[in-house]
Structure formats: C-alpha cells, structure tokens
Write a structure and sequence with these properties.
The chain contains four helices and no strands. The chain has a domain of 79 residues. Pfam families: PP1_inhibitor (PF05361). It comes from Gymnodraco acuticeps. This is Protein phosphatase 1 regulatory subunit 14B isoform X1. Belongs to the PP1 inhibitor family.
C-alpha cells in the first residue's frame, strides 16, 4: 500500500555558511599509533614465556597454576627487583632452582631494551 506524500516523514538539511572554516578534530585523540616492531617483539616474548611455562610446570595450559607475568610490571623494577619478583612468581614450580634461574635469566635478557606499553609508543 502506498502512503500518501503528506503523511511521510521528511528530513531537511540546512546548508551551512560556506565562509566558515570547518571545525577540525585532533586526530591524535582518535587514533593511537604504536611501533609495530616493539609490538612484535613483545608478542614474541609473551609466546616464549608461554612455552617456557609449559616446560617448567610439565603440564597443559589449563593445568598451569594462576600465574601472570606482567612485562610492564617487570619493566618498572630494577634488575634485582625483577629477579626477586620472578622468583616469587615461580615458587610453586617444582623444577630445580637452576632450571627456574635459566628461565629467569632468559626472560630478563629478552626484556632488556623493551619499553612499557601503558601509553602510546613514540618513535
């Protein structure tokens, strides 16, 4: 059934004054650009950590104890603070201390030069 033109809704647009400059938005607030190389390096480290935790705990992913290694948290600490924090996190691991220390040394080596990701990275 066709409706009558008088009952249809109409939308009307008003043309703005062409002499005014358009309002500009700051694009920096809308998008954030991260350094792709740093993101890839961080992803590689996180995948390495995941694989090492499987070896340290000799179990499947679902069976690994609640353990979260926060790279940004480690980056805020000094060298000895990083080592101490990782030792605290790995207390439940039943592997010998040497094996745990190998993991810790490997992780500390990999995160050297990495930057925190709490905000946008700048080149």
């Amino acid at each position: 059934m066709a409706s009558e033109p008088s009952t249809q809704s109409r939308v009307m647009f008003q043309a703005g004054d062409k002499t005014e400059e358009p309002a500009h938005r700051k694009l920096g607030k809308l998008t954030v650009k991260y350094n792709r190389k740093d993101l890839q390096r961080r992803l590689d480290i996180e995948e390495w950590i995941d694989g090492q935790l499987h070896l340290l705990f000799d179990c499947e992913e679902e069976e690994i104890p609640e353990l979260e290694i926060d790279i940004d948290e480690l980056l805020e600490l000094t060298g000895e603070g990083q080592r101490t924090r990782l030792q605290e996190l790995l207390q439940e691991c039943e592997k010998p201390k040497e094996v745990r220390n190998d993991f810790i040394n490997g992780l500390l080596y990999r995160i050297k030069g990495l930057r925190k990701m709490s905000g946008p990275l700048k080149k």
